[in-house]
TrEMBL record:
Family statement: Belongs to the ribonuclease III family.
EC number per UniProt: 3.1.26.3
Catalytic residues as annotated in Swiss-Prot or TrEMBL: D37, E105
Compartment(s): Cytoplasm
Name of this protein: Ribonuclease 3
Lineage: Bacteria, Pseudomonadati, Pseudomonadota, Alphaproteobacteria, Candidatus Enterousia
Keyword presence, Magnesium: yes
This protein's UniProt keywords: Cytoplasm, Endonuclease, Hydrolase, Magnesium, Metal-binding, mRNA processing, Nuclease, RNA-binding, rRNA processing, rRNA-binding, tRNA processing
The UniProt record lists the keyword rRNA-binding: yes
One Gene Ontology biological process: mRNA processing
Designated gene of the protein: rnc
Length: 210
Protein backbone atom coordinates (compact mmCIF):
# COMPACT_ATOMS: atom_id res chain seq x y z
CA UNK A 1 0.00 0.00 0.00
CA UNK A 2 1.28 3.45 -0.96
CA UNK A 3 1.84 5.52 2.20
CA UNK A 4 1.27 8.93 0.62
CA UNK A 5 -1.69 11.03 1.68
CA UNK A 6 -3.09 11.35 -1.82
CA UNK A 7 -5.81 9.53 -3.80
CA UNK A 8 -5.29 9.41 -7.55
CA UNK A 9 -8.16 10.55 -9.75
CA UNK A 10 -6.54 8.50 -12.52
CA UNK A 11 -5.15 5.28 -10.95
CA UNK A 12 -3.51 4.37 -14.27
CA UNK A 13 -0.97 7.14 -13.69
CA UNK A 14 0.15 5.49 -10.47
CA UNK A 15 0.28 2.09 -12.17
CA UNK A 16 2.48 3.56 -14.89
CA UNK A 17 4.73 5.28 -12.32
CA UNK A 18 5.35 1.91 -10.69
CA UNK A 19 6.17 0.05 -13.94
CA UNK A 20 9.86 -0.30 -14.68
CA UNK A 21 11.14 -0.49 -18.28
CA UNK A 22 12.32 -4.06 -17.70
CA UNK A 23 8.64 -5.07 -17.58
CA UNK A 24 7.34 -2.95 -20.44
CA UNK A 25 9.71 -1.22 -22.87
CA UNK A 26 6.99 1.15 -24.15
CA UNK A 27 4.62 1.80 -21.26
CA UNK A 28 6.87 2.44 -18.28
CA UNK A 29 7.74 5.15 -15.76
CA UNK A 30 10.64 6.85 -17.57
CA UNK A 31 8.59 9.80 -18.88
CA UNK A 32 6.94 10.34 -15.49
CA UNK A 33 10.38 10.14 -13.88
CA UNK A 34 11.51 12.94 -16.22
CA UNK A 35 8.70 15.17 -14.94
CA UNK A 36 9.07 14.13 -11.30
CA UNK A 37 12.77 14.97 -11.34
CA UNK A 38 11.98 18.58 -12.34
CA UNK A 39 9.06 18.93 -9.92
CA UNK A 40 11.16 17.63 -7.03
CA UNK A 41 14.13 19.81 -7.92
CA UNK A 42 12.10 23.02 -8.02
CA UNK A 43 10.09 22.19 -4.88
CA UNK A 44 13.22 21.42 -2.84
CA UNK A 45 14.97 24.54 -4.19
CA UNK A 46 12.08 26.75 -3.02
CA UNK A 47 11.98 24.95 0.34
CA UNK A 48 15.69 25.53 0.96
CA UNK A 49 15.47 29.16 -0.18
CA UNK A 50 12.83 29.75 2.47
CA UNK A 51 14.42 27.66 5.23
CA UNK A 52 17.96 29.06 5.00
CA UNK A 53 17.66 32.79 4.14
CA UNK A 54 21.25 33.60 5.13
CA UNK A 55 22.98 30.93 3.04
CA UNK A 56 24.68 31.59 -0.28
CA UNK A 57 24.05 29.76 -3.54
CA UNK A 58 26.89 27.27 -3.08
CA UNK A 59 25.64 26.15 0.34
CA UNK A 60 22.07 25.82 -0.91
CA UNK A 61 23.31 23.83 -3.91
CA UNK A 62 25.12 21.32 -1.68
CA UNK A 63 22.03 20.89 0.49
CA UNK A 64 19.92 20.47 -2.64
CA UNK A 65 22.25 17.85 -4.12
CA UNK A 66 21.99 15.78 -0.94
CA UNK A 67 18.20 16.04 -0.72
CA UNK A 68 17.56 14.97 -4.33
CA UNK A 69 20.31 12.33 -4.44
CA UNK A 70 19.65 8.71 -5.35
CA UNK A 71 20.30 7.68 -1.75
CA UNK A 72 17.74 10.13 -0.33
CA UNK A 73 15.13 9.29 -2.96
CA UNK A 74 15.56 5.56 -2.38
CA UNK A 75 15.11 6.08 1.36
CA UNK A 76 11.95 8.13 0.81
CA UNK A 77 10.65 5.49 -1.61
CA UNK A 78 11.00 2.90 1.13
CA UNK A 79 9.34 5.19 3.69
CA UNK A 80 6.37 5.63 1.33
CA UNK A 81 6.22 1.93 0.46
CA UNK A 82 7.02 2.59 -3.21
CA UNK A 83 9.73 -0.10 -3.16
CA UNK A 84 7.15 -2.80 -2.37
CA UNK A 85 4.88 -1.85 -5.29
CA UNK A 86 7.29 -1.54 -8.22
CA UNK A 87 6.78 -3.92 -11.14
CA UNK A 88 10.25 -4.72 -12.45
CA UNK A 89 12.18 -7.29 -14.41
CA UNK A 90 15.49 -8.83 -13.42
CA UNK A 91 17.43 -6.34 -11.34
CA UNK A 92 20.87 -6.74 -9.76
CA UNK A 93 21.26 -5.73 -6.14
CA UNK A 94 23.48 -2.81 -7.11
CA UNK A 95 20.72 -1.27 -9.24
CA UNK A 96 17.87 -1.61 -6.73
CA UNK A 97 18.56 1.75 -5.11
CA UNK A 98 18.45 3.50 -8.49
CA UNK A 99 15.20 1.74 -9.34
CA UNK A 100 13.60 2.89 -6.07
CA UNK A 101 14.78 6.46 -6.66
CA UNK A 102 13.51 6.52 -10.25
CA UNK A 103 10.12 5.15 -9.20
CA UNK A 104 9.84 7.75 -6.43
CA UNK A 105 10.43 10.52 -8.97
CA UNK A 106 7.88 8.91 -11.29
CA UNK A 107 5.25 8.83 -8.53
CA UNK A 108 5.82 12.54 -7.89
CA UNK A 109 5.50 13.17 -11.62
CA UNK A 110 2.26 11.21 -11.69
CA UNK A 111 0.82 13.26 -8.80
CA UNK A 112 1.80 16.45 -10.64
CA UNK A 113 -0.09 15.36 -13.76
CA UNK A 114 -3.05 14.15 -11.71
CA UNK A 115 -3.43 17.15 -9.40
CA UNK A 116 -1.08 19.98 -10.35
CA UNK A 117 2.04 21.56 -8.91
CA UNK A 118 0.64 22.94 -5.64
CA UNK A 119 -0.54 19.51 -4.45
CA UNK A 120 2.68 17.66 -5.25
CA UNK A 121 4.76 20.53 -3.84
CA UNK A 122 2.87 20.25 -0.51
CA UNK A 123 3.60 16.51 -0.40
CA UNK A 124 7.28 17.09 -1.15
CA UNK A 125 7.65 19.92 1.37
CA UNK A 126 5.97 17.90 4.13
CA UNK A 127 8.44 15.03 3.68
CA UNK A 128 11.61 16.86 2.69
CA UNK A 129 11.39 19.60 5.33
CA UNK A 130 12.27 17.11 8.07
CA UNK A 131 15.15 15.78 5.96
CA UNK A 132 16.47 19.32 5.49
CA UNK A 133 16.10 20.09 9.21
CA UNK A 134 18.18 17.01 10.04
CA UNK A 135 21.20 18.64 8.34
CA UNK A 136 22.15 21.37 10.81
CA UNK A 137 25.37 22.15 8.96
CA UNK A 138 25.89 22.48 5.23
CA UNK A 139 26.88 19.08 3.77
CA UNK A 140 30.46 19.04 2.52
CA UNK A 141 30.75 18.25 -1.18
CA UNK A 142 32.12 14.71 -1.54
CA UNK A 143 34.75 15.88 -4.03
CA UNK A 144 36.01 18.43 -1.53
CA UNK A 145 36.04 15.86 1.28
CA UNK A 146 37.94 13.37 -0.91
CA UNK A 147 40.49 15.99 -1.97
CA UNK A 148 41.11 16.99 1.65
CA UNK A 149 41.57 13.34 2.65
CA UNK A 150 44.00 12.68 -0.21
CA UNK A 151 46.05 15.81 0.42
CA UNK A 152 46.24 14.94 4.09
CA UNK A 153 47.54 11.45 3.26
CA UNK A 154 49.76 12.39 0.32
CA UNK A 155 50.75 16.05 0.30
CA UNK A 156 50.13 17.71 -3.07
CA UNK A 157 48.30 14.71 -4.56
CA UNK A 158 44.85 15.06 -6.12
CA UNK A 159 42.15 12.54 -7.05
CA UNK A 160 42.06 11.70 -10.78
CA UNK A 161 38.65 11.67 -12.47
CA UNK A 162 38.08 9.76 -15.72
CA UNK A 163 34.85 10.40 -17.64
CA UNK A 164 33.56 7.18 -19.20
CA UNK A 165 30.69 6.37 -21.57
CA UNK A 166 27.23 7.92 -21.41
CA UNK A 167 24.34 5.47 -20.97
CA UNK A 168 20.59 5.67 -20.34
CA UNK A 169 17.70 6.99 -22.41
CA UNK A 170 18.35 9.88 -24.81
CA UNK A 171 16.03 12.21 -22.88
CA UNK A 172 17.77 11.41 -19.61
CA UNK A 173 21.43 10.47 -20.17
CA UNK A 174 23.47 8.86 -17.40
CA UNK A 175 27.10 9.96 -17.12
CA UNK A 176 29.64 7.51 -15.72
CA UNK A 177 32.85 8.49 -13.96
CA UNK A 178 35.84 6.67 -12.46
CA UNK A 179 37.91 8.31 -9.75
CA UNK A 180 41.28 7.09 -8.50
CA UNK A 181 43.21 8.17 -5.41
CA UNK A 182 45.58 6.58 -2.89
CA UNK A 183 45.81 3.44 -5.01
CA UNK A 184 42.06 2.80 -5.00
CA UNK A 185 39.31 3.43 -7.57
CA UNK A 186 35.54 3.78 -7.53
CA UNK A 187 32.78 4.51 -10.02
CA UNK A 188 29.79 6.81 -9.97
CA UNK A 189 26.84 7.69 -12.19
CA UNK A 190 24.63 10.76 -12.43
CA UNK A 191 22.51 12.98 -14.63
CA UNK A 192 25.52 15.25 -15.30
CA UNK A 193 29.30 14.93 -15.22
CA UNK A 194 29.31 16.89 -11.99
CA UNK A 195 26.73 14.63 -10.34
CA UNK A 196 28.56 11.53 -11.55
CA UNK A 197 31.92 12.73 -10.24
CA UNK A 198 30.36 13.53 -6.85
CA UNK A 199 28.80 10.06 -6.76
CA UNK A 200 32.17 8.51 -7.61
CA UNK A 201 33.87 10.54 -4.88
CA UNK A 202 31.24 9.37 -2.37
CA UNK A 203 31.93 5.74 -3.31
CA UNK A 204 35.70 6.16 -3.04
CA UNK A 205 35.35 7.78 0.37
CA UNK A 206 33.50 4.63 1.49
CA UNK A 207 36.26 2.41 0.05
CA UNK A 208 39.03 4.41 1.73
CA UNK A 209 37.17 4.32 5.05
CA UNK A 210 37.32 0.49 5.16
Amino acid sequence: MLKINYDFKDPKLLELALTQSGVDSKHNNERLEFIGDRVLGLSVAVLLYEMFPSEQEGDLARRHATLVSTETLAMVAQDFGVDKLIRHGHMTAGRMQHMYADAMEAVLGAIFLDAGFDIVKDIIVEKWRSLAEAELTVPKDAKTALQELVQKSAAGALPVYEYLDVTGASHKPVFNVKVTALGKSAFGSGSSKKAASIAAAEELLKVLAI
